[in-house]
Design goal:
The complex is a heterodimer. Chain A is mainly beta. Chain A has one helix and eight strands. By secondary structure, chain B is α/β, with parallel strands linked by helices. In chain B, the strands form two sheets. A nine-stranded mixed beta sheet of chain B has the order 3-2-4-7-1-8-11-10-9, with helices on both faces. The longest helix of chain B has 16 residues. The chains are: A mainly beta, B alpha/beta. The interface between A and B is large, with 34 and 37 residues.
Chain lengths: 112, 375
């Protein structure tokens, strides 16, 4: 199991990539580590890609898992859903599928 | 607060036009029934989303004002991404309601079709979260993921979704200003090429050139602006509560209904932001016309057709009228004004007395609602 560097606010919001201030309550955040696994909420194969990206581009919104909330001792903790690129054809994807998220220079990739 | 009324309205023909941004604005102004109203304008409110990117020009409010022969008047530009046309309308509204001016020209223009599609896609993607952009995400990709999630939660099928496109193209056929004035069959829609799965070509509004104009006045006319509402939502989807409902629309419409003292069932006709076909279904739920998921049955049962219980997008919507991004929100106001005046020709909604417009900025991060009534 790998870990991702995120930011955590006192209000419970986790932010990925880390932000200095929470976008929900504007308080200063602290760095934290969160598990790199989550579930696919939705996905697409984009053919009309923007400049700098080859088509087709597989993208998914991943909801990071909240199973480590006990270890943080905070029941209000709110894990983010983030847009990730995929290197697998969409035929292999379905909503709810458990995936691993990898960060490369603030770009996020999911692996099945 | 002073009452605000609509006097003149006009549109330039939407589509792939061989005109500049300022020439489109001039065409819209010239298409008002009585263009002499320009002589008594106190100020110009100009709406546009990405003029710098698309045309290379800036200082657009002064330039358009000058081009219309209105040099000397105060001129200001309003931008809220793809809802700029609705936002500039509300800026003009507030200027008159607050008694700053008696009569203002609200005008929006966008020139988009002269640049390559990949460049336009990149420009349009600049409205979303920079981190989402860094992953190659665009407006269409996010809309596609919203659509797939909606399908998952409410059981919407591709065929049901296609009915929105079929309806709006039917309506567009009746609108001489529309980008597309041809019908499309269900088969054409569901077999068109995939732009971002599950969205196909005929689920997406086109890149269009266009302009719209509305004159707002404190002098009573037969159309009164009775409700305005405006709300924002976090730009990154990371911080949102839902992918299948847009809270900025819900915030905006709550204000507009309260201000106009109206309920969803009072609305006779609405123009909503169908940049993607699924958005029309979501919009009609966010406006409380139908319960969450109920927008599907409404389109399937024909409730939202021109001859239905609650006609949605009689103009053809963004899908068929076209989507010059900073103009669509104001073009919706023009359409509702025509509907309330009985001037909508073959697409006239019988007995329309109260109309609503709803416009989305970015991926639903800056949304506005207006309510207009026969006075």
């Amino acid at each position: 199991m790998g870990l991702l560097t995120a930011a955590k606010c006192d209000c419970g919001q986790i932010m990925l990539p880390p932000r200095e201030r929470c976008l929900i309550c504007m308080k200063t955040t602290k760095l934290c580590k969160i598990k790199d696994t989550g579930n696919i909420l939705t996905f697409t194969t984009l053919y009309a890609t923007p400049e700098g990206f080859e088509a087709p581009l597989v993208l998914a919104v991943i909801k990071l898992e909240s199973t480590n909330q006990e270890q943080n001792g905070d029941s209000n903790i709110k894990f983010p859903m983030i847009v990730c690129q995929g290197r697998v054809p969409e035929a292999k994807l379905k909503i709810g599928l458990r995936v691993k998220v990898e960060e490369v220079e603030e770009r996020y990739f999911f692996l099945i | 607060m002073k009452n605000v009324y609509i006097s003149e309205v006009g549109l330039a023909k939407f589509g792939k036009r061989d005109l500049t941004l300022e020439e489109l604005a001039y065409e819209a102004a010239n298409n008002m029934k009585d263009a002499t109203v320009l002589e008594t304008i106190d100020a110009v409110f100009f709406g546009n989303m990405s003029g710098e990117e698309f045309t290379g020009l800036s200082n657009l409010s002064a330039w358009v004002t000058d081009y219309l022969g209105l040099c000397g008047r105060p001129a200001i530009r309003i931008e809220t991404a793809s809802s700029s046309g609705a936002a500039v309308f509300q800026a003009g509204y507030r200027a008159i309601a607050s008694r700053c001016f008696n009569q203002v020209l609200v005008i929006a223009s966008e020139k988009m079709t002269h640049i390559p599609t990949k460049r336009a896609t990149s420009i349009l993607a600049k409205v979303i979260d920079p981190i989402e952009q860094r992953n190659g995400c665009t407006m269409t990709a996010l809309a596609a993921m919203v659509t797939r999630r909606y399908m998952h939660e409410y059981g919407l099928t591709n065929e049901e979704l296609a009915l929105v496109s079929v309806k709006n193209h039917e309506n567009g056929m009746l609108n001489p200003f529309a980008h597309f004035q041809k019908p499309v069959s269900l088969e054409t829609v569901i077999n068109s090429k995939i732009i971002s799965s599950p969205l196909r070509l005929f689920d997406c509004s086109p890149i269009s050139d266009g302009a719209a104009v509305v004159v707002l006045t404190s002098k009573p006319t037969n159309v009164k602006v009775t409700g305005v509402g405006h709300g924002t939502e976090h730009v990154p989807i990371q911080y949102r509560e839902s992918l299948t409902s847009f809270s900025a629309t819900r915030r905006a419409v709550k204000q507009a209904y309260e201000m106009a003292n109206k309920k969803p069932e009072d609305i006779d006709v609405a123009e909503v932001h169908d940049a993607f076909t699924s958005f029309e279904i979501i919009d009609t739920e966010d406006l409380d016309f139908f319960k969450p998921g109920g927008g599907i049955k409404a389109i399937v049962d024909g409730k939202t057709r021109i001859d239905g219980e609650l006609p949605i997008n009689p103009s053809g919507g963004l899908k068929a009228r076209g989507h010059p991004v900073g103009v669509s929100g104001l073009a919706q106001v023009v359409e509702i004004t025509w509907q309330l005046r009985g001037e909508a020709g073959k697409r006239q909604v019988n007995g329309a007395k109260i109309g609503l417009t709803q416009s989305i900025g970015g991926l639903a991060s800056n949304n506005l609602v207006n309510i207009l009534e026969v006075a």
